[in-house]
Amino acid sequence: MNQDAVKNILLSIEDAPLDFSLIFSGKKSRKVNGLYKPEEREIIIHNKNFQDDGGVQNENSLVYTAIHEYAHHIHACKQGGKLPSRAHTREFWAIFHNLLAKAEELGLYKINLADSPALLELTSRIKEDFLTENGRLVKELGRVLIEAQGLCAGIGLRFEDYIDRILCIPRVSAKTAVKIFQYDIKPEIGADNMRFVAGIAGEDARSEAQRAFIAGKSPDTVITSYKNGKTPPEDDPRSRLEKEKQRIERTIGMLTKRLNELEHELEGL
Predict the structure, then answer these.
(1) Do 124 and 167 share a structural domain?
(2) Residue range 186-206: average pLDDT?
(3) How far is the C-alpha of 161 from the C-alpha of 158, rounded, in Å?
(4) What mean pLDDT do residues 225-252 have?
(5) What angle do CA 151, 139, 145 make, to 5 degrees?
(6) What residues are paired with 35 via a beta bridge?
(7) Is the model's pLDDT at 235 over the cut of 60?
(8) What is the pTM of this model?
């Protein structure tokens, strides 16, 4: 598989708004498998990283890395051609995971758990014995906390004090567990994802997010899509820059105020 073939694979997964180049470095790197240069819109793949001692290429791993770097390019396109100061944001991971899912559907990238019966069995155990079971426990905690609240009321004990100093549970955690039970969120999506779904406003949005988790969407993908119960608006570079300008102006204002205070204090010494 050469660099032209890899670029064609990326374009077949999703067309990019801006053109880009993809090159094989012909080198092996101990630090990274690939990188993206936003100024040049260039993806560099250290292709020697994907060859064994006999020179056989691991195409699946190579495609994974290429998709990762391509996700940076797509992300940069959404940001007006530039990447944010922190490249691996939640939005980036959502873009990356969506590209991987498309690549799987097209048969261009594969996750073959069946190739390792031991890994397939362990994955099933992790999901059922740990993720789902942990979710069941959190949901059951919500149920018994509601019961405890009624008993506290019966003896005139503030439930908040019971949570704070008897159970020593953060109030947010207790409140979330109660919501998880009241909203009847499915334990199979795991406790962490259950907590996110419980924080979504609106039953329809919660149900939609839960279905996305059950369908195998990554947390970053779901959180980006359903944060605050709403699909976020398409990123607008102008809006982003205006918000950054406002933050800088506020910072300058606060620093100017502090500078004036210091000068006044120095004059009094």
Answers:
(1) yes
(2) 95
(3) 5
(4) 64
(5) 15
(6) 44
(7) no
(8) 0.79
Alpha-carbon gap, residue 191 to 269, rounded angstroms? 59
Q: Are residues 249 and 189 in the same domain?
A: no
Closest by alpha carbon to 3, among 31, 37, 42?
42
Check residue 239 and give its pLDDT: 63
Question: What percent of the chain lies above the pLDDT cut of 70?
Answer: 94
Structure tokens at 32: 């990274």
At 29, the amino acid letter reads: S
**Residue where one domain finishes, among candidates 70, 86, 111:** 111
Structural domain for 162, as ranges = 114-229
Alpha helices in 155-236 (DSSP H): 159-161, 171-182, 191-198, 203-214, 219-226
Average pLDDT for the chain: 91
Answer whether 186's CB lies under 8 Å from 214's CB.
Answer: yes
C-alpha angle with apex 90: 64 to 243, nearest 5 degrees?
Answer: 135
Please state, in angstroms and rounded to a whole number, the distance separating the CA atoms of residues 229 and 244: 25
* DSSP H or E stretch at residue 119: helix 117-125
pLDDT (tens digit per residue) in 36-59: 999 999 999 999 999 988 889 999
Nearest to 14 by CA among 60, 78, 59, 84: 78
CA 224 to the chain's CA centroid: 7
Tell me the C-alpha distance between 141 and 136, whole Å: 8
Residue 112 forms beta bridges with which residues?
Answer: none
Which residue in 99, 106, 107, 85 sits closest to 16, CA to CA? 99
Q: How many domains is the chain built from?
A: 3
Q: Are residues 161 and 78 in the same domain?
A: no
